[in-house]
Automatic annotation (TrEMBL):
Keywords: Hydrolase. Residues 9-274 form the AB hydrolase-1 domain. The lineage of its organism: Bacteria, Bacillati, Actinomycetota, Actinomycetes, Streptosporangiales. This is Alpha/beta hydrolase. It comes from [Actinomadura] parvosata subsp. kistnae. It comes from the Bacteria. Transmembrane segments: none annotated.
């Protein structure tokens, strides 16, 4: 990527997130005049549907009401990414950046349209190269120290979504949310960041297998940016995904970079994240 003026970064948010989370990173990239676009996956961002009692006192039905996102599929999410990539193919370099759970739909998008992606960057993100479902890694022994398990509400299968409560007033719950996602975010900004989260992640995103091939996804150069103090996807899990993908696709091994801090560097250190992206590979 010698001429960054011809490169565009396509950002895809993780679970419960939205395109707006990338704004500070995009501003950091705009300084050196690098273009970027952030995608809202179906059911995320400002248009995310909320459980009917979510904003009411006591949040009635939050544990049992079926999610409006129950029918959102992995195909739907990948299609939203591919649609964005097609509109950007006039750039000479298109770099797809996936955070966390977005690794599944981003990988599927790249598998389906490898001609639209020049490099794919996984930011502490799920890589289905070795195991096809995000749940396969979340349940691995290497992930045993991960925080955040106490955030999940109700029965995900019945809800059709992995549900959390960013508006919780329970101090213990709020602290687990902070520790898992934003532990290094200044206290006076944490409240704003947790308010950017929506309650439902379509169950299909962590549960649907993503099958990759050497001739399509496997031909795309890839970078993994490790978050060194990630508490919801520990470095042991990140390294396991990297190692298993490299073993399955040895012709295009990961370039690996490490940045300090939590699972959400776009919240705490967007300039460092932007510099890491500009240096990929």
């Amino acid at each position: 990527m010698d001429d960054m003026s011809t490169t565009v970064f396509v950002f895809v948010h993780g679970a419960w997130g939205g395109a707006g989370q990338w704004a500070a990173t995009q501003r950091a990239l705009a300084g050196p005049q690098v273009a970027s676009v952030a995608v809202d996956l179906p059911g995320h961002g400002f248009d995310a549907p909320l459980p009917s009692g979510y904003l009411l006192p006591g949040q009635p039905g939050l544990l049992t009401e079926k999610s409006e996102l129950a029918d959102v599929t992995m195909d739907d999410c990948a299609a939203a990414i591919v649609d964005t990539l097609r509109r950007l193919r006039h750039h000479s370099q298109v770099v797809l950046v996936a955070h966390s759970a977005a690794g599944g739909p981003a990988s599927l998008a790249a598998e389906r349209a490898p001609e639209l992606v020049d490099r794919i960057v996984y930011l502490s993100a799920f890589v289905p190269g070795g195991r096809p479902r995000f749940f396969d890694y979340l349940n691995a022994p290497q992930n045993a120290t991960a925080l955040g398990q106490g955030l999940f509400l109700g029965d995900a299968g019945a809800l059709g979504a992995v549900r959390i409560n960013p508006l919780s007033t329970d101090p213990a719950y709020v602290e687990e949310l902070r520790q898992a996602h934003f532990h290094d975010t200044p206290a006076n900004r944490f409240g704003r960041w947790r308010s950017t989260l929506s309650p439902d992640l379509p169950l299909a995103i962590p549960a649907t297998p993503v099958l990759l091939t050497a001739g399509r996804w496997g031909r795309i150069p890839r970078t993994f940016i490790r978050c060194a103090d990630d508490r919801i996807l520990p470095t042991a899990t990140q390294d396991l995904m990297i190692a298993e993908a490299d073993a399955a696709f040895p012709d295009t091994p990961f370039t690996v970079r490490t940045i300090p801090g939590s699972h959400s560097p776009f919240a705490t250190r967007p300039h460092e994240l932007a510099m890491a992206l500009l240096q990929a590979p």
